[in-house]
Amino acid sequence: MKRKKITVAVTGLNNIDNPGPGIPVIRGILESKFFDARIIGLAYENLEPGIYMHDLVSKSYHIPYPTAGSDILLQRIEYINEKEKIDILIPNFDAELFTFMKASEELKKMGIKTFLPTLTQFEERQKTHLPMFGKKYNINVPHSRPIFSEKEIYELNRDFTYPLLVKGKYYDAEIVYTPEQAKLFYHKISGKWGLPIVIQEFIEGTEVNVVALGDGKGRTIGAVPMRKQYITDKGKAWSGITLDDTNLLRITRKIIKNTKWRGGMELEMIKTEENKYYLIEINPRLPAWIYLAVGAGQNLPEALVKLALEMDVEPFKKYKTGKLFIRYSYELLCDITEFEKLAHYAEL
Amino acid sequence: MVINKKIAISETGFIFNPTTGDSFSMNPIATEILEMLKKDMREEEIKNALLEKYDVNKSILQKSYDEFIDALRKLNIIE
To answer: What does pTM read for this prediction?
Structure first.
């Protein structure tokens, strides 16, 4: 079969100890038997390793941070598109998704397709809205609430017991055992990601995650559950294994059906000793461990590209359980001239 | 007492529970007991087979057997 030539722009090339999903998404797309993809890397920093992985990324460009606003971002994408003729753009950072979702119509006018959640879907699954999400879709969620000032920490014992979780609005979470610890992480996390900080009830159990893809009409195109086998000091999976957990898949399908979820997602859940499941977070994109799903038989990045191109996609029916991933570190060597070119011209 | 249908047990005594992701390595005697359980052998039959094969006191065998079965149950390997 002759593979269809496409150009895909991808962010999240920070394949570091706390990796972005860009490189594993790219690996999935490049393994497609259907597409012959050329990958364009979109990077925020000069040292994002993916920029220098020339076997995976054909060319990379600097793009402005989302805080610069969507107009500046669109100007830059327009310039890149003139040179590269991008077919599909896959943003992979939580913090940039809102900007890309808002810009999706403008991108469409440039001929660039995306397959992202709607603004409503994105907003209602925010950590700060999780209790309402649980109520609306009849899903167990831990008790939580956003706080906006340090003073509120000392009032938490009215409706929380320690230990509890202090979470950033985009990233980072810490278990704390005292108000003093809560105060410490309130400042540490809000200093990095801003306010509010989310206070969440600590549910004891095993964390289990699911990567899934919704077609925007209520159908689950694919879903693979995973348990972290080993975690880094940042709480990120260093190793994980696919699970055969029908309850977890049932909950995933229910969420996708009821929200009509569009795009990739990662569900983070806690399974208690009593086999009760609590949804603790929904990440509105494919996660950094997505390549495990590809290896287990569900190439969800490829399916996402098909959906973005408005092609018919049949839902995956199975995956391999007991498939394991182990991350590793690897020194990528490059010449200073490459770094110079990127720093000087903002492209490589 | 039935072995959880989803549990995978290799010849080397490696157990994998695909629902939880847990895995365990068993020693040769534990593997032997599990093999007998897989064949639907009853407790008395298993213990008699072990008494015949190994130089072990009956009461020590009973205690060890009960502890092992208890552990298998706690780990959801048997139901």
So the answer is: 0.90
